[in-house]
Predict the structure.
Amino acid sequence: MIAELNNRGLGEGAGSGPLYKRLARALTGLVQEGLLKSGTALPGERDLAGALQIGRVTVRTAYRDLLASGVIESRHGSGTFVSQHVERIEQPLWRLSSFSADMRSRGREPAARILQRTISPPAPEETFLLGLGLDEPVLRLDRLRLADGQPLAIERAVVPIKFLGEDTVSEGSLYDALAARGFKPVRAQQRLTAVTLDPTSASILTVKAGAPALLIERVSRLADQRVVEYTRSHYRGDAYDFVTELRIGDDL
């Protein structure tokens, strides 16, 4: 890394502009070219200044600019690291599929981490939405969804126990579990809302509090129109692009 930085015009009289700007540009170039990977620890200010034979204030100012632009991040008590960036995923809105199936179709390995799993009576609004009686229990399953180990979304699903049973679904596909019991969802209605993440959700998704996210509320139905699932999911705004296909009507 030090040799690369020296080769990029950090010597006296090389390049143009203040030295801290040149250092910031050089470090950004190493990140963009993949020579500094996401999560790589950077040298401390004193160590980097000594290795490059420049002032510590120069390194501090360069790091400050890179922190502001999001190229690097500071972790309290750990040091300075190249920021974690995720490959953006284009998710079509016209196809109903599970997270697991969608990730596998992209060649990525899906996983889930259970945050909370409880069985309880439905809330009053859920009895209407799910078409249940107050004495018909539901499974509440909150999970962190990951692809190749990268946290992407928090899913909070509510499913009537009569469709799922009490001992099914942990880290696999909820839709696969429903289909295995003969209750495969065939259609759904989704609502998308732009939101910001609260500190708890942001911490789970390893982003900053207040980071942008997409809240997706989905109501899935069986072929006989019964509601089989109600899910609220928060998707990382830096990881997802949701797209839809529009057709021009004959009256235009």
Notes: The CA atoms of residues 109 and 148 lie 5 Å apart. The radius of gyration is 24 Å. The chain has a mean pLDDT of 84. Strands lie at 72-75, 79-82, 89-92, 110-120, 138-147, 150-160, 187-196, 212-221, 227-236, 240-243.
